[in-house]
Amino acid sequence: MRKPLLLIAIFLGSINVFQAQKLDIIPKPVQIEQQGEVFRIPASVRLILDKKLQHSADYIRGEFLKSTGITPNVFIGASQEKKSIVFLVDDTMELPEEGYRLSVKKEGVLVKGKSANGLLNGFQTLLQICSAKAIEKGTIPFVTIEDYPRFEWRGMMLDVSRQFFDKETVKNYIDWLSAHKMNVFHWHLTDDNGWRIEIKSMPDLTLKGAWRGPGEVIPPAYGSGNQRYGGFYTQEDIKEVVAHALARGISIMPEIEIPGHSRAVIGAYPELGCVITHQTKSVQGEVDNVWCVGREENYQVLDGIIKEFTELFPFEYIHVAGDEVNRATWEQCPECQAVMQDEGFTDTFQLQNYFFRRVEKIVEKYNRKAAGWNEIIKGGQLSPKTQIFAWQGVDYGIESAKKGYSTIMIPGQYTYFDMAQSASERGHRWAAIIDTERVYGFEPIPENDLSLDEQKLIKGVQGALWSEYLDRPERFMEYQSYPRISALSEVAWSKKEDKDWDDFYSRLTNSHLQRLSDMGIAFRDFPPTAI
Ligand code: TNX
């Protein structure tokens, strides 16, 4: 008697699984149930947005039209009218902050979340459902979804110093992140090869420091030939991009590269560097690229720069770098040596720690927290609020968490998208050759090496696109980013136990690559479209 029932159950179960896969959502939601029927979107559909989502109204209207071909009538406020699509904040819901529930029924579509960003995540899922290959345009299958992220920090960094990307390109980049439910854009705004943000109190940072090549203070670099090359964002541009990101649920963490990687700054304001006779080179072969940390006036200058950053960026973190500092410079600098003697330091990592303790104080004075690359945990304690970005490898993230710091895993070996994707492709190779499957296989929590409390300090995961090798038309940046960021988004969002490369690959190739194409992304195809 029981066997047939069991068989029917297995049969129905497999239909359900089959249907769920047809929606091809990336990153994969936590729970999804389909009912088989569809909601037909009326031509005059009403989209009713909670007032907490007002800042996203234009964005939502535009994206809905692109995905469905239907222009919605958008209303702000609360209403449960039939056949409409309703987005409602309910802060009493038992769901993580950025989670959402989505239901599509005969009566209409309801997206509920605890926060505006939760609703935006639900909106991205809705857009993906509407654009899945198996779905008839203008319809939405009946479905119930409950979904929330695994990690609260799901970031991506773009280096706009080595190559400059204009503000429209950056805005597009942010749109694509948002489509993958990523929530932090880490904007690497300064480096040896160009300072890209207008600072009113120090105009030469951009007048001089944003340009390289003949006649400029920064030598030509990374394939830009002998042409004058450069560009920067005005403060108005920055405000525009920050608002654009906010409407898409993305926070922007700006980065100021200090005290190393500062050739552009020191070219523009030589007095900020150390006065030394024997130059040594940084890892990337630069000279004169380190701030003098022994000169008192430099801390006032930094205070002024950080102040302007905090006026432009509302996010809680300011990234103050600290990677690959050519500390040998400080060994020859009398002012740095004087500080070392006064403080009783025996090595330059202690001097680096002294510098960052002072920078943290400035950042915290403006009610923000500092973030930095993993080298800054050397040489002494930091403020417990400071957040560490473990780029040199998972072991560095383990060390950071063991020391009690909030840690973001961004290991070069898995999430550096400037690395080549196969042996024959362009890109850096120092960390690894990284194809999409390798990114997908990355596990950010090294369970065997950390206690449960330490594991909680792994706040999230991030990718990085350094741009030394992006010296080709802009679209090369897209080729390096996608679909590797699609894989990263699933590492960051979906449950560990739900990860399955074959299943991801089928969702990717079945529907998602087409979505990337529709967004205008010149992604790397399978097999690669060679470069
Ligand atoms: C190391 S990652 C750097 C960057 C380079 C990158 C190239 C990090 C914090 N520093 O300056 O662009 O390698 O892969």
UniProtKB/TrEMBL annotation:
EC number(s) per entry: 3.2.1.52
Residue ranges of domain Beta-hexosaminidase bacterial type N-terminal in the record: 23-148
Keyword Signal: yes
Molecular function GO labels: beta-N-acetylhexosaminidase activity
Recorded superkingdom: Bacteria
GO biological process, one term: carbohydrate metabolic process
Active site per the UniProt annotation: E324
Cellular component terms (Gene Ontology): membrane
Keyword GTP-binding on entry: no
Domain Glycoside hydrolase family 20 catalytic: start-end pairs: 151-495
Catalysed transformations (reactions): Hydrolysis of terminal non-reducing N-acetyl-D-hexosamine residues in N-acetyl-beta-D-hexosaminides
Keywords in alphabetical order: Glycosidase, Hydrolase, Signal
Signal peptide stretch: 1-19
First-tier enzyme category under EC: hydrolase
Recorded family membership: Belongs to the glycosyl hydrolase 20 family.
Name the UniProt record assigns to this protein: beta-N-acetylhexosaminidase
Species whose genome carries this gene: Gelidibacter gilvus
